[in-house]
Amino acid sequence: MLLTLAWGSLFFPGLFALSTWALRRWRPAWSYNDCVMVGTRVVSSVQAVLATGAGIIIIRSCSNVVSDRHWLAREYVWFLIPYMVYDCYAMYLCDWCRIKDQNPGHSFIFRNFLSQNRLMITHHMVILFVLVPVAQRKQQHTLLYKVNGIITLTSFFCCRILLFPFMYWSYGQHQGLSLLQVPYNIPFFCNVANAFLVAPQLYWFSLLCKKALRLFDTPQDKRDG
């Protein structure tokens, strides 16, 4: 656990520093701000590839994705914690690069950063200090674990599934269309692309729901006991 945490603490900041250094050497015409912006995106892309690869390995190694356990699922959480901390710093650094020429002062930049990114910061803090510690506990029938499950289901449904109808609704409000009229007034490939994006979200949500049902479905003999 601690070794994985240490590797993550070295890997993500190190990758960012290496990416920024390499870009400044390979693209001397780029400004420091450009190198920082691209460097942060390189790290985010690498983390996305690693997370996807870990998920594929875990799914292929487990015959039952609801009840089976895999060591990589536990270890990658500890590897991800430093990324969450790094990502908060990277967001602040990007904000600083965008507005530093205005000489607003570090306190103003920090307040602006907190104001503009409060949802993302809250998301990272909840994962770090609530979801990860609770998920690492193996007391699956405690109230805290169940509350954590409800929060996970709710946040997943709102942020990954309801996002799509909200996106259509927002476009309809801008164009003076109802929600049901939007799919017929945008390019067909947009609907196809959104369908491909939302399909795995619905599948993963169904797995989360199955897990929640198993968690809350206490066997009859335990109730009687």
Number of strands: 0
The largest β sheet comes out as: none
Helix content: over 70%
Shape: globular
What is the H/E order? Answer: HHHHHHHHH
- The amount of beta strand, in percent, is under 5%
Determine Rg (CA atoms, Å).
Answer: 21 Å
Please identify the structural class as seen in this structure: mainly alpha
Helix count?
Answer: 9
Mean pLDDT: 79
Q: What are the low-pLDDT stretches, counting only 5+ consecutive residues below 50?
A: 220-225
Tell me the distance between the termini: 37 Å
Task: Give an overview of the whole structure.
- This protein is mainly alpha-helical.
- The two termini are 37 Å apart.
- 8% of the residues are buried.
- The C terminus is likely disordered.
Describe this protein with a few key phrases.
single chain, 225 residues, mainly alpha, globular, disordered C terminus
Characterize this entry briefly.
The chain contains 9 helices and no strands.
